Amino acid sequence: MNGRTYTAQPVEATLGPHRFMFPANLYYNQIGPFAGGAVMLAVFWSGLNAAPPGNYPERSMEDGYRQVTIELRYVGRAGGGGYLAPDLNGRVALPPMLGLTPYAMDRSWVSRDTWEVAPDWYVVRDGDGRVRTFISCDSREYMLDGLMMEDGRLVRSSGDRVAMCRHSGVDVERGIAVEMSYARVLLVEWERVEGTIRRMMRRYEVRR
Fold first, then answer.
1. Taking CA atoms, which of 21, 86, 115, 158 is between 20 and 30 Å from 143?
2. What percent of the chain has pLDDT over 90?
3. Taking all residues of the chain, what is their mean pLDDT, rounded to a whole number?
4. In which band, very low, low, confident or very high, does the pLDDT at 67 lie, cut at 50, 70 and 90?
5. How far apart are CA 138 and CA 117, in angstroms?
6. Quick one: the chain helix, strand, coil %, rounded to 5?
7. Whose CA is closest to 148, among 136, 163, 166?
8. How far apart are CA 25 and CA 196, in angstroms?
């Protein structure tokens, strides 16, 4: 396509001492790591699978809505342990939802200009109280989803923008930080997204 051959053949990615052989079509550009070795993958709702080879140059607007981008970075074991440490000062915990603990701005001491633009935060802690998952989304109070799920598709709804989430985690054992981005309407799928990434890393890691 356009002079380039797209395949599902394995393409190597190196993250610190770890090697992975991800299929070419699993990479964001359906080719491989970016110049300099940056690793970005992409899967698509609802199956959370890679797009077919050759899809990249022809992606539709709907493909963009369904896309979950996944950036992998090596931070090392030492860095991985403290990678997720959001400053929760000025935030108050709300009742859990979707298995997440929301943290809202404490409006008693910050200005309206601050809390009106502040994103919604969601946290999951491990058994030792450390933050295991951190998700920051466009504010539900001030921004509509912009999308709705309809018969296994994502279609535009009200609002002039699509609300987004940034979903952060870390594989402490490997020392690999995982940063994901997706439409906020997919927040209900956050656990399935995390599970998908873990399975892909196990499946495509080159064991020594």
1. 86
2. 72
3. 92
4. very high
5. 9
6. 20, 35, 40
7. 163
8. 16
